[in-house]
Every structure is written in C-alpha cells, then in structure tokens.
Fold this sequence. Notes:
By secondary structure, this protein is an alpha+beta fold. 21% of the residues lie in helices and 10% in strands.
Amino acid sequence: MLVRIVGQAPLAATVYSLQRLHCGACGQVFTAQEPDGVGPEKYDEMASAMIAQLKYGCGIPF
C-alpha cells in the first residue's frame, strides 16, 4: 500500500477575465457575459463555512 500526502489550500479561486470592447463612435464600453454556472456572488456556501471554521475554530485571523 502506498500513501501519498499532498498539501492543498483550504480555499481555491478561479479568476475570470472578461473581455471589454470600447465603441469608438459612442464611447460605450461593452463587457462579455460570464460563463454558464458562474453567479454574481463572490463566495459560495462552502467557502463561507471554511472561513468561519478557520477563524473561530482554529483562531486564524482574517
């Protein structure tokens, strides 16, 4: 039997860089739509629970 232990961060983030186009005629800026399944909220429920556990359970500062 082999056991492999790897380090992993308690939180992971994905950065979506949306394209922005500038209209030369009217000056309006158009931003691309976000991918499917990506909502407007920054943190999901699991991230909020992990932050609370680290803060109040382990004493790690914000």
